Amino acid sequence: MDRPWARPVLGDNQQLRSIEMVERLDAPRSAMYRAVDKGGPAAYAVRRDRIERTWP
């Protein structure tokens, strides 16, 4: 998979246990791939039920 731009991924809850963080990053995987395919630099927050673009 060729991805020319880095995309920071931010968790919205620093109190999550490791397994909860893994589940949160695994569940929206297809949404994250779609976001990366849009191109350009960006930052996304991974929420419990969605990802959210936070920058720019």
Q: Which terms summarize this structure?
A:
single chain, alpha+beta, 56 residues
What does this structure look like?
This protein is α+β, with helices and mostly antiparallel strands and 56 residues long. It is built from two helices and three strands. Strands 1-2-3 form a three-stranded mixed beta sheet. A hairpin with a 4-residue loop joins strand 2 and strand 3. The longest helix is centred in the middle third of the chain and has 9 residues. The chain is globular. The mean pLDDT is 78.
Structural class of the secondary structure composition?
alpha+beta
Assembly classification: single chain
Secondary structure: helix percent: 25-40%
Radius of gyration, taken over Cα atoms and rounded to an integer in Å: 11 Å
User: Care to count the β-strands?
Assistant: 3
- Provide the succession of SSEs: EHHEE
* SS summary, helix count: 2
The amount of beta strand, in percent, is 15-25%
Q: Biggest sheet, strands in spatial order? A: 1-2-3
Mean pLDDT across all residues, rounded? 78
